[in-house]
Design brief:
Length: 132
């Protein structure tokens, strides 16, 4: 049975495929506290920039309250950083590669062989991995 705050990535996921949302929230909060300290901002100063109370910043930093994507985006702009900054030291497990069925590809009405389809799929996959 799924615990409160726990995410299961797929319907066929095993115990090793689950992670706790609170762990992610705490990790993001830790990153906010760290960056705020690097910039010499107090909780009150950050709160004023966001139109919040300093108590709300405390709750974000401790992981008690979840941060919306929009709010995290604003914080990243105030901190002069990218969104990935908040996730780079996160304890979120890496996504596992999954096998997917390669769709049939047609070019000008002609059916491509399985080998050609696989080569195209590998090329597209390789290109996608290199996109930032």
């Amino acid at each position: 049975m799924k615990k409160k705050g726990e995410i299961i990535k797929s319907s066929k996921a095993g115990p090793e495929d689950t992670f706790d949302i609170q762990t992610i929230e705490k990790s993001i909060g830790t990153a906010i506290r760290k960056r705020r300290g690097e910039l010499g901002l107090t909780q009150n100063q950050l709160a004023k920039k966001l139109g919040l109370s300093y108590q709300q910043i405390q709750k974000y930093e401790t992981g008690l309250n979840r941060i919306t994507a929009g709010r995290l985006f604003l914080i990243s702009k105030i901190f002069f950083t990218d969104l990935d900054y908040f996730f780079k030291d996160s304890e979120v497990p890496e996504a596992k590669e999954t096998t997917t069925k390669v769709p049939t590809i047609h070019l000008k009405g002609e059916h491509l062989t399985a080998d050609v389809q696989k080569a195209i799929a590998n090329l597209v996959s390789s290109m996608a991995k290199n996109v930032h």
